[in-house]
Amino acid sequence: MSYTAPLRDFAFLLDHVVGFDRVAATERFADATPETVNAILTEAARMCQDVLAPLQRAGDTHPARLENGVVRTSPGFAEGYRAIAEGGWVGMSADPEYGGMGLPMTLTTAVNEMMSAACMALQLNTLLTQGQIEALEHHASDEIKALYLPKLISGEWCGTMNLTEPQAGSDVGALRTRAEPDGQGTYRITGQKIYITWADNDFTANTCHLVLARLPDAAEGTKGISLFLVPKFLPAKDGGAGRPNEVRVVSLEHKLGLHGSPTAVMSYEGATGWLIGKPHGGMAAMFTMMNNARLGVGTQGVGAAEGAYQLALGYAIDRRQGKAPGTGSIAEHADVRRMLLAMRAETYAARAIALSCAVAIDMAAATGDPVWRARAAFLTPIAKAHGTDVGVDVTREGIQVHGGMGIIEETGAAQFSRDVRVTTIYEGTNGIQAMDLVARKMMDGGEAAFRLLDDVAAEAEKARNGMGDLAQAVWDAQEALRETTEWLVAQHDMQDRFAGAVPYLRAFGRVLGAAAHLRSARKAPDSPRRILAAFYIERLLPEHAGLLAQARVGADGLYDIGLDDMAAA
Amino acid sequence: MSYTAPLRDFAFLLDHVVGFDRVAATERFADATPETVNAILTEAARMCQDVLAPLQRAGDTHPARLENGVVRTSPGFAEGYRAIAEGGWVGMSADPEYGGMGLPMTLTTAVNEMMSAACMALQLNTLLTQGQIEALEHHASDEIKALYLPKLISGEWCGTMNLTEPQAGSDVGALRTRAEPDGQGTYRITGQKIYITWADNDFTANTCHLVLARLPDAAEGTKGISLFLVPKFLPAKDGGAGRPNEVRVVSLEHKLGLHGSPTAVMSYEGATGWLIGKPHGGMAAMFTMMNNARLGVGTQGVGAAEGAYQLALGYAIDRRQGKAPGTGSIAEHADVRRMLLAMRAETYAARAIALSCAVAIDMAAATGDPVWRARAAFLTPIAKAHGTDVGVDVTREGIQVHGGMGIIEETGAAQFSRDVRVTTIYEGTNGIQAMDLVARKMMDGGEAAFRLLDDVAAEAEKARNGMGDLAQAVWDAQEALRETTEWLVAQHDMQDRFAGAVPYLRAFGRVLGAAAHLRSARKAPDSPRRILAAFYIERLLPEHAGLLAQARVGADGLYDIGLDDMAAA
To answer: How many distinct structural domains can be found in chain A?
Structure first.
């Protein structure tokens, strides 16, 4: 699989669209000078293009497998991982005190997108370690930090998240794994966890599991959950990997996609674990890890979309067929153009939203300003769900552009579609993201939402001069979204909010995407970015009206058909 | 995989929604009495549930394979095929003179939906034979008919379509396979064909290929294409399968889905073939075959959607998770309800559209009325593209309802999504269907479209009494669609029609779906059908506005970005 990193897009978005200049102007991120940013992205692009992209097909055709309890990874993945670790890409936003580069999350987001486009199955390993690093930075003791962070940041060790159990998926509070104090300051962890991504590998010296479990005196539900660090090998006196812990990979799943990423059932049989954070404080620590990972997963969607777009564009340009105008390639057919431009415009909008979310995270971290914190919190579920919806939609269209070749596995189009499919599900399904958006993220009475819409309206006002029609369309759309937001905030029966949560989130993504395109067009009025903006605003933005109509129906009628009557038979 | 045939839906749609009574009132289909219809559907349902559904997973996990030039099919497929053949399901609409049942295409459509829901990979074999039977009925000589039709109709032999070559996909006119007269009234066929579905098997005594090829004096493009019947085994004197023809299966494709259905590269090396229809008249014969198959493929989309819906509903009812109201199953969460009801409402609408198309085909066949013929021609691309879009959308949502289980292959949700993916591509991509709709199918100045919209408007008028809001919404939508249809008909630059063809077709599907739901609600106002209709009209129909906006932008802007500038890099 060949891949060309979208460096021009990143540069343009950072310089002109998502407000990265404000991040670079903070004291905390003063090192993120234009030269550094350029050097970082160029270097990451080279690794993704030269080292990771060639691994993508091998990960699919030679899945990770379990041999006598040991996970054997796909051919080349060990070398690919080494390149990621040695480049410093695992810990690029981690604390410099422990070996990280301390760079803004905005840059990590760009690099993560490139890595996911090139080889998502392997990048997923890094994404999980990044989440673990952030959780430990915020919640672990100094001793744990000193021991684990340098090894995680360097990539010598890697990290996983162990939340789900057979009866506890979206409902984490139902988990049963037990943690008993052993009198030596550590705990014996016992239970079974499922869907554990990258539970093991054959290229890092240790794998560190963050495990949610219950202490003996724990309350029921989420209030009784604590977080434990459970390494595959217990640290030896010199700090290296020592004797094996009581942790076992039971089996690997047979999955639709991401075959290169082992997904395991894990068994903890009195394994030694260290408490992270306070007793019964596991949910807070988990949310640190998950929030980071949610933006990361949204970014995986963008990466898959970009990869699928490049593959489809290349195919369409090369493929000669029918009486096409111009070059005679199928890319000259109006309907193929429509598909390709939609793929491009959707991917660009999703990229802008992910980077905007990252900018808010960076600004919150650098300034502590609650307004930035609220914006980061509000944009995270949108970046996750919108980015992954775009990933699923665009990779699906990538198959369509290929015609019959699209379903032949060797082409690679189908793999993008299979690999990205899980992203709308893991780290909280997109339904959960939407419920989070209309409930928790609107506990401020909609303030974070309205501030974002104010920015969209301001952008539309600025764009009126020269792009009157496009600006008006964006202004109207933000106004419609504002009215629906007001309606949602006024609903006190949460079921009425939840019933329209998914279409509401999608409409928000549409409007933010349109605003990003409009701003791009205003900043580069004589470039193809203006054509792309017109495409998005004229053809894709109108979808928001249907989505908002759906968002405002409420729960009426959803419960009027009994489950027995829902079968067609 | 378990499956329950939607017999209640079929009965209701035939009796109250799609106008099947008019078909049954014709002389040609006088045998299709209510008792016969009921017996036929019940018997087919039993076979699909008991014999075919249990084969679905085996087809996926044990793909058809090529061993020393011979195709070995998936375990149980031979027995499944025998059940289809012995039940008479292959030739249920075929000419009774040759052993067919002469039943309406409407019933074949219902049976084909059930078979595709149960095991699409095997059903696809039957669908192709049905297309071949129809092509031979219309275009073959009496001698060929007498020899081949009884064996195809009984299922003793089966049929394939050989159109595509590496350089000739959607552009059939580019094909190069040659046919040279051998002086004995037959022809020597030489060339390579690709994507040949069910090119061979190990359960029928013969496989008959309909092959498009060029005679020596052929013109370029589609005008120089002729159709040939090329059996795997040449007929012996007794009419049975005799010595092997010069036809070879070169290789099988490694596909995203439909693993149980072998897709081959075929080599014809001076194979003996019989001309079907007139020299250079291959396109007409092919369109007979394709038109039949297009409705059939749309129906596959409906079947996959129904199968995926049943699987998701069953899972959601069984799965207990979180603080759901009522029974505590995830089916009680508002967002899961929304997904399930959308799956159900979409599938029902697509089923209604497919059956309406079949009714038009039957009425055209029974009456010869050009108005019915035009309606059948207009509805065919909609039934194909809308049905398969629904198939892809609903199976995707089926994965989502399953959460993490959705991407575990053993669950079966992912298989529905993989299997149905090709249906938006084969038998003419959905882009080709949409172009056909806005060009060829509007050469009547939009008359067929406006007649359909008149029917929708009339239905809305009838429903005003008692369902005012729903009726108004449907009336408004048909009015918006009518205006866009007028706009399209007025565009003489076809690129302006083609640029919005796909969203236009989708909007048409939405409006026809809404009309079918409205009619259902009017006919059964106190049933869950009314709730379902409200769901569709309030939540899904509003999408039509965004689609129509997109349909009316025209080709403006599509060609303003050079292919070089379309890359993001």
So the answer is: 2
B446 at A interface, C-beta within 8 A = no
Which residue in the list B269, B427, B447, B483 is annotated as catalytic? B427
In chain B, what residues touch A315 (CB-CB under 8 Å)? none
pLDDT band at A323 (very low <50, low <70, confident <90, very high): low
Query: Which residue of the set A113, A165, A332, A427 is catalytic?
Result: A427
Give the CA count within 13 Å in the CB-facing half-sphere of B163: 21
| Beta-carbon separation of A553 and B539 below 8 A | yes
The answer to whether residue A250 sits within a structural domain is yes
Question: Is A542 touching B (CB cutoff 8 A)?
Answer: yes
Buried b (16+ CB within 10 A) or exposed e, B51-70: bbbbbbbbbbebbbebeeee
Whether residues A400 and B531 touch (CB distance < 8 A) is answered with: no
- The position carrying tokens 């016992």 is A190
The answer to whether residue B141 sits within a structural domain is no
- Contact status, residue A211 vs residue A194, Cβ threshold 8 Å: no
The confidence score (pLDDT) of residue B569 equals 67
Characterise B277 by phi-psi region: left (phi > 0), alpha (psi -120 to 50), beta (else): left
Question: What pTM was estimated for this model as a whole?
Answer: 0.97
Q: Chain B: residue nearest A11 by CA? A: B569
Q: Measured between CB atoms, does A117 come within 8 Å of chain B?
A: no
C-alpha to C-alpha distance for A270 and A267, rounded to whole angstroms: 10
Q: Residue B82: what pLDDT?
A: 98
Mean pLDDT of chain A: 96
CB–CB contact B410 A254 (8 Å): yes
Which structural domain, as residue segments, surrounds residue A495? 441-551
Q: Do A528 and B561 touch (CB under 8 A)?
A: yes
First to last CA, chain A: 45
pLDDT for B324:
65
Report whether A154 contacts A206 (CB < 8 A).
no
Residue A565 pLDDT > 90: no
Which chain B residues have a beta carbon less than 8 Å from that of A388? none
Condensed to tens digits (0 to 9), the pLDDT of residues A473-485 reads 999 999 999 999 9
Cβ contacts of A232 within 8 Å, gap of 6 or more? A200, A206, A207, A208, A209, A241, A244, A245, A247
CATH number, residue B184: 2.40.110.20
Nearest by CB to A539, from B344, B425, B553: name it.
B553
Which residues, at least 6 apart from A59, have a Cβ–Cβ distance to it below 8 Å?
Answer: A74, A77, A119, A121, A122, A258, A259, A260, A261
DSSP codes joined into one string, B367-407: H--HHHHHHHHHHHHHHHHHHHHHHHHHHHHHHHHTGGGGG
Plot region of A458 (φ>0 → left; ψ -120 to 50 → alpha; else → beta): alpha
A466 touches chain B (CB under 8 A): no
The Cα–Cα gap between A290 and A383 comes to 13
Q: Does the residue B257 lie in any domain? A: yes
Q: From B280, B307, B331, give the residue that closes a domain.
A: B280
Structural domain contains residue B146: no
Q: How far apart are CA A193 and CA A213, in angstroms?
A: 10
**Which of B317, B332, B337 best tests the A interface by mutation, with the highest count of A CBs <10 A?**
B337
Amino acid at B401: V
Which pLDDT score is estimated for A324?
65
pLDDT of amino acid B563:
87
Q: How confident is the model at residue A326 (pLDDT cuts 50, 70, 90)?
A: confident
Average pLDDT, chain B: 96
Q: What is the pLDDT of residue B323?
A: 67
Residue A427 annotated among the catalytic residues of the structure? yes
Residue range B303-323, pLDDT digits in tens: 999 999 999 999 999 988 766
- Interchain proximity A549–B561, CB inside 8 Å: no
Q: Give the closest-approach CA distance of A218 to chain B in angstroms.
A: 18
Contacting B residues, span 548-567, partner chain A, CB-CB under 8 Å: 549-550, 553, 555, 557-563, 565-567
- What's the token pair of residue B559? 């060609």
